[in-house]
Amino acid sequence: MSEQNATREPVLRATGLIKRFGGLTAVNDVSLDIYPGEVVALAGDNGAGKSTLIKMISGVYRPDGGHIYLEGREITMASPLEARGLGIETIYQDLALCENLDATVNIFLGREPTKRLLGIFKQVDRGHMLAESNKVLERLDIKIPNLRRPIRQMSGGQRQAVAIARAVYWNARLVIMDEPTAALGVPEQRKVHELVKTLKAQNVPVIIISHNMQDIFAVADRIIVMRRGQKVGDVRAAEVTDDDLVSMMVGAA
Amino acid sequence: MGVDSHQTHSRHAWLDTISRIWAWLFLLAMVIFFSLAGEGFFTAFNLQAILANMAILTIIAMGQTYVIISGGIDLSAGWVMGMAAVISATVMNRLPETTPMWMVVLSGLGVGLVAAWIAGLVNGILIARLNVPPFIATLGMFGIARGIGFLLSGGMPVPIYIKGLGFLGNGFLIYYHPSAGWSLLAPPAGLAQADLRNLTGYFPFVVIVMLALLLVAHLVLSRTKFGLHTYAIGGNKEAAMRAGIPVARRLVSIYMLSATFAAIAGLVYNVRFTNGAANAGEAMLLDTVAAVVIGGASLFGGAGTVIGTLIGALIISVLANGLVIMRVNPFWQFIAVGIVIIIAVLIDQARAQFAQE
Ligand SMILES: Nc1ncnc2c1ncn2[C@@H]1O[C@H](COP(=O)(O)OP(=O)(O)O)[C@@H](O)[C@H]1O
Ligand SMILES: [Mg+2]
């Protein structure tokens, strides 16, 4: 851990997290700190417990043990919605977008602004949604030609961008991404890497789960390695190689 | 982005355009055809008759539009309409003779609505809270409403003995008579029975009611949060839930809205035919679903508009009217509507398949 981080307050701190499914301990006593503007990759084999760990942080599962602190305050979350309310935005693998609706609606889904027409009729304020969407996309340096097209007609990278824009617009304090590049071609993967860097530049920390070594080395400052529910490594990305990581993941080292 | 994906996108956009405008073109072609080939089709009298005759279908189809966009279907709406019509008729008959007309109508509507809302609420709870597939839940309600309607009416239509009610259902906003001139709300005074043949009415009341409801249904669907959430639920229910939309509550409201339109349609039936029949909406199922799907709604959910449904209802009604005018056996109408539905569904499927690629 660098000197700099030692003096700063972590955005997220988890201590001793445990999650059991019946007799199986999917996550076993894992602690981690995430600092402002830091990109942390979560690596590990299938079944290592990465998704389960993330789901405790994003309010999907209640931990069987341990504590979670956001900006120094302990938090408990009964649902993903509560986590979002606290500023923990998760971008799921399947993106959770409505493909039949346009980008602006997706960014505002569930929190649509309204205005009154003739003083009585409360209607969705599409103009405001469009203006705000343009702003946030500009901030993220994302170019989407026609925001009024249904998401269905967009490329995978553009959809990923919309999902990220949604998280950022609502002032995420921490963004979690589960396998964000799994379904994308190489140029689109690069676009996602750029987006992660943009988030970082805006001081929003990102936890990114990935199998993909290219992803990890392209964006991560730090890598947390999991194996069979336990944290077996917490290293600076600059100080390890692919081979080091693989050894840690499979437990050969 | 490669050339391939660019081509896919433009082909997709092309298919989207086709699926949006074919119904308009089809309607236009039909109107032109019947105007040229059918004697008396393109007259104010006949065109107004088409609109008045489609009012009940269109009103139920508006509710069906919301339901289908949300990814469901309401098989029960036609029988809920019949049940409401029977209950409204029975209650209106029991009112004292001195009751003012607006009270009669409001009372009929009120009781019809309450009965329909119970049906809609049960549909909604079964679907939204107990995860019964819409097809099954509303099929059950189809049977229940049908049984209740027939039990309450003793299996026969309930005649309504209220003076002036039929006038409301079949009246016009404006009348014109070649010798007596124009008049508002009622035919010019002092016309002999024989003179009534030359009387023409403009703007049937039921058409005005239908258009008002269309406007409200359209604004709510296209402009409110409720409307937007209906699309979101139909597009991706899981995503809607994760976004914090109260999906279950919205679904219950959607099925209750469908029941609301059914009850209003029941009252329109009451005033138009001065009776309440349990099977008043029996033939409506095919036609309402047809109108919605022809209008561009997807049976997969997530797409559709009130204006589209209006076009769909117009196609069905113009077809029925035109065939009669051409003296074609009216049973051909079922076949024609059936074919148009299949075309609509094929277009929808082609679009959905494309979207997956
Ligand atoms: N909902 C669940 N019920 C039971 N077992 C689960 C559940 N979710 C995950 N597991 C198990 O917990 C372990 C960790 O899974 P997961 O967190 O998905 O790993 P990863 O995301 O690293 O592939 C696996 O053995 C998996 O089978
Ligand atoms: Mg996983």
The structural class of chain A is alpha/beta
Oligomer: heterodimer
Average pLDDT across residues of chain B?
A: 91
Task: Please state the CA-atom Rg of chain A, rounded to the nearest Å.
Answer: 19 Å
Provide keyphrases for this structure.
heterodimer, A: 253 residues, alpha/beta, Rossmann fold, 2 domains, six-stranded mixed sheet, four-stranded antiparallel sheet, 12 strands, globular, B: 357 residues, mainly alpha, ABC transporter involved in vitamin B12 uptake, BtuC, three-stranded antiparallel sheet, two-stranded antiparallel ribbon, 14 helices, 5 strands, 70% helix, disordered N terminus, binds adenosine-5'-diphosphate, binds magnesium ion
Summarize this entry quickly.
The complex is a heterodimer of chains A (253) and B (357). With 253 residues, chain A is an alpha/beta fold. Chain A has helices at residues 3-7, 50-57, 80-85, 103-108, 126-139, 156-169, 186-201, 213-219, 242-250; strands at residues 12-21, 24-34, 39-44, 65-70, 73-74, 88-91, 114-117, 121-124, 174-178, 206-209, 222-227, 230-236.
